[in-house]
Amino acid sequence: MTAIEATALRYAYPDETLAVDGVDVSIEHGERVALLGPNGAGKSTLLELLGGLVDPDGGQVRYFEETTDADTVRSRLSVLTQNPADYLFNPTVREDLAYGPAQLDCDRAEVDRRVERVADRLALDGLLSKPPFRLSGGEQRRAALASALTVDPDVLLLDEPVSNVDAANRATILDLLDELAADGVTLVVSTPDTELVPHVADRVLLLDDTGTIAARGTTRRILTDTELLRDCDLRPPQVVRLFEGRAKDVPLTVEEAAERLDGAGLDTIE
Asked: What stretch or stretches form a coiled coil here (predicted)?
């Protein structure tokens, strides 16, 4: 089943600069897809178009093969933009996490269950009674993610989900995204970070600075094409640069490299 189908999307900023120009996107249910590109490539705008937060100047987006109206499927679709303050506007973190399911007419017991479950998974238990503005940047990002998850979405669109998050909480978020994907949640992640992509996506849409998609392919194919990445003003992952030209099957992450170099993996190095 197709979760999101976008055709000929076009969007221009008020100064008439094209951010997205004739883009087609098809995302299947349960996929993990990265929108990868340099700053200014229109990734965030494309994510907002796919999430129905802004209307395109041309083209359309269809959801779950049934509607082009994102508002009618809000219970199945969550979008997390770069600014956590967009999601944290209540007096306490608990009220922010409860807001989404309450709007879906969940009863009080179900709202509380969802809040406690997500807060526990993102280590927010001790922060639920705090005002959001008293949280650190990383805490705000985790709280915003939690608020997007309490509606139990089928599709989750995330813009730089681990930006300004320390290493421990980054690992917590990435583990949670793995669990969501294993449960069948469709994930779309916008990022300029090639190091993050192997941890969140199996397929990549590579954007360039013209508002178009320069390439599509598996995460491995895109991230090991170092010339293509550099042409799009992106730095290939450090491990890829280290093993480039020295291994038959280039690893994408430190963990994968360690496995290759452990025991039998040593014979992959020329």
From this structure: none
Q: Which residue has the tokens 């933009």?
A: 81
The Cα-based distances of 255 to 161, 198, 261 in angstroms read 21, 11, 10
How many Cα atoms occupy the beta-carbon half-sphere of 9 within 13 Å?
Answer: 30
Q: How far is 229 from 238, CA to CA, in rounded Å?
A: 13
CA 181 to chain centre: 12
Select the more confidently predicted residue: 121 or 249.
121
pLDDT in tens, 23-75: 999 999 999 999 999 998 999 999 999 999 999 999 999 999 999 999 999 88
Instruction: Quote the CA–CA distance of 186 and 33 in Å, as a whole number.
Output: 8
- Pair of tokens at residue 229: 């990445």
Q: How far is CA 77 from the centre of its chain?
A: 13
CA distance 32 to 23: 19
Are 41 and 208 within 8 A, CB to CB?
yes
Find the distance separating the first CA and the last CA of the chain, reported in whole Å.
Answer: 43
pLDDT in tens, 98-118: 999 999 889 999 999 999 999
Q: Check: CB of residue 186 under 8 Å from CB of residue 27.
A: yes
Residue 58 token pair: 């041309």
Residue 88 belongs to what H/E stretch?
none
pLDDT of residue 166: 87
Q: Which residue bears the tokens 């996490």?
A: 97
Q: What pTM did the predictor assign? A: 0.91
Local confidence band at 233 (pLDDT 50, 70, 90 cut-offs): very high
Reading the block at residue 84, the tokens are 């956590």
Structural domains of the chain in order of their starting residue, each with its CATH number: 1-76+155-168+181-231 (3.40.50.300), 83-152 (no CATH), 237-270 (no CATH)
